[in-house]
Amino acid sequence: MNLFDTLSVSASGMAAQRQRATALVENLANAETTRTPEGGPYRRKDVVFQSEPAGSPFSGIFQNELDQTGIGVSVSEVVEDTSEPDRRYLPGHPDADARGYVAFPRINPAEDMVDLMGASRNYAANVSAMSAIKDMINRSIDLVRG
What we know:
Blueprint: H1 3-29, E1 45-54, H2 60-63, E2 70-80, E3 86-89, E4 101-104, H3 109-145
Antiparallel strand pairs: 1-2, 3-4
């Protein structure tokens, strides 16, 4: 695998973690949303990753010489939680049913915050990897110049 393919692997990881962070922030923002346009409470969203071959548009010439390509990551789907909503007894709430219960999303903000920190750290790790690869490419160019 050449350095340009490695850049593509890190770039795919960054894109996937960005989508994961977006879903987590949306979950946190809607943790108390009891009414959506579709009806009912907000449904928690989870991002599912899958591996995929990562190629680089910059290394097309070299790919004929090298048979190895990196394995990157992509988002295969965004899954909505289908479990029953959390019911709380709030008889004065505008969305309360006849018995006084309100359906709330089944979201644990502490869990989503930990997942968001993980996504942020994974994104930063990919940025660091890309920076290291960029430095290697620059040093290689300097060596060739002699």
